[in-house]
Structures are given as structure tokens and as C-alpha cells.
Amino acid sequence: MITWKQALPDFEWLIHQVWYLQVEEGDDLPALPKLIPNPRAHILLTPAAQKYCYQSDTDTFSGFGSHLLTASDQILTLHEQFPLQRFGITLQPEGLYHLFGDTHLAINQCQQPDWLVTTFNPFFQSIKWNEITAEKVKTQLYEFLQQQGFEPKRDKASQLTRSVISVIDGNRVSVAIDCLAKRCCVTRRTLERSFKQVTGLSLKQYQTMMTLEKMVLAIYERGQVTDWAAFAQEFGFSDQPHLIRHLKRQLGATPSGYLSNRDLTLDIYGDFE
After folding, report:
1. What's the CA gap between 4 and 159, in Å, rounded?
2. Helix ranges restricted to H, the chain
3. How far apart are CA 140 and CA 131, in angstroms?
């Protein structure tokens, strides 16, 4: 298995990270890995004949070739076919807004929109799948984005959203929405409306997803958690049972169950190597 992830300098306002996954027959991967709820959209580039399939409790998304996976507030099970090559552009939560405005922000969607081809086709054509490397594809993407002249939106809604995301991402525990609004010197209604317009998510949805992401990463990185009560308090839960109920509701697994199975991932493998 070959996998890597990297930031894209000068385009951090648009892209959370770029990453690559190559899996051959017989490589060791969890059976049916699961993508946790995620506030970021992914542009997923693959060879045209590569099949994809994501399954939630209510929907199945499948097809072939490159596609867009929007932000999702539900677990997605990945049904992969090997060999597999996938290059991912994981956007910032407000990335689609910067690119296209607020018309592409529906959550829980897997699509092959027209703009994916019309806008990104020159970059698609530049990828040589038999000789792809991190530095080469990063350079190609960087040059493509510069040629397109993409720039961040600087309207009030996007500025408010970026300020709030910085606060939320910088805290382990959830921040009261009224406190966020006061910090931004706007009404709660204005803040919530702006955030929804830019990300397609409510503030509550985003905070829930980010708390979950931080917890799963912490569990993954530590490998073993001996004091679950202290861990619960670290992330703003009143006690261990409250934490376990929350994780079972969000992930369908207890913390110990996750540690045993290791079948959860973020960003379509991009965060777990």
C-alpha cells in the first residue's frame, strides 16, 4: 500500500489537504472501512474504470471514475475493489463556497457534477497514473489552481465563518453558539445563517463532527486509553457513560470497540496511515 497526505501551500484557504492512496491485491486493509461524519467535501480523482461505492444506513452511492463526496453527517461504509488508485483533494469546510458560491452545498451527496469535468479536466489530463508522486501531483495541482485564478471570497458571511471555524477547531470542547456570536459581534441568527450559507452545515452539526474527529484521532494516536473518565472530561463530556453513549450514537461503536476493530477512517484514508 502506498499512501501520503500533504498540505498545499498558498491554497490553505481552499484545501485542507491533498492525499493519495494506492492499494494492490493482498495489501492489508480493514474489511469494509468506515468513513466517520465529516464536515469537508472531497474531490476524488481516480482512473475512469475505477469503481467506488459508499453505503450509509439509508443510501448507497456507487459509480465509476472521479466524483465529489460532499460533507456528511453519517457513517459511510467503503466497499472497495482492488487494485485501487485514488487521489483526493479534501476541501476546507467553506471550500465549495469559495469555488462556486452556495449552490453546491447539499450534504450527504455523492455526485459527478458537470463542473468536475469542465473545471478540473485540464488537471485530470495532467495526471499520469502509472508514475504519480506526491511532489509531481502537488506541483501540477498548484499550477492548475494558479492558472484558474481561484481566490477566496471575502464577503461578510465567509469572513464570519472562517473566524468561527478557527475558534471551534482550536478548542477540544464545544463552544456555546451565543459565545461565538458575541465574539464575532453579530447576532446568533446572523452567525448561524452565514455559517449555513457558506458550509451547508449548521453550527451544531459542525461542532459535533469536529468533536468526533478530534476524539477519534486522539484515540487512534494514543493507541490505548486507560482513564476513560479523564478522556471524557477532556472533550467536554460530563462522565464516561455520557461519552460512550455519544460515540455509540455517532459511530455505532464504543471506544473499546473501535480500538479493537480499527475500522474507522477520516478523509477516505487521508488521515490514517
Report:
1. 31
2. 95-100, 114-126, 134-148, 156-169, 177-184, 188-199, 203-222, 228-234, 240-251, 255-261
3. 13
Residue type, 272: F
Is a pLDDT exceeding 80 seen at residue 17? Answer: yes
Burial degree of 71 (CB within 10 A; 0-12, 13-18, 19+)? buried
Q: Is the pLDDT of residue 248 over 90?
A: no
Pairing between β-strand 51-55 and β-strand 42-45 as defined by DSSP bridges: unpaired
**Residue closest to 207 by CA, chosen among 177, 249, 231:** 177
Calpha distance 110→108 (Å, rounded): 7
Statement: residue 272 has pLDDT above 50 = no
Closest CA to 70 of 103, 29, 46: 103
Rounded to the nearest 10°, the torsion over CA 111, 113, 118, 120 is -30
Distance separating alpha carbons of residues 235 and 157, to the nearest angstrom: 28
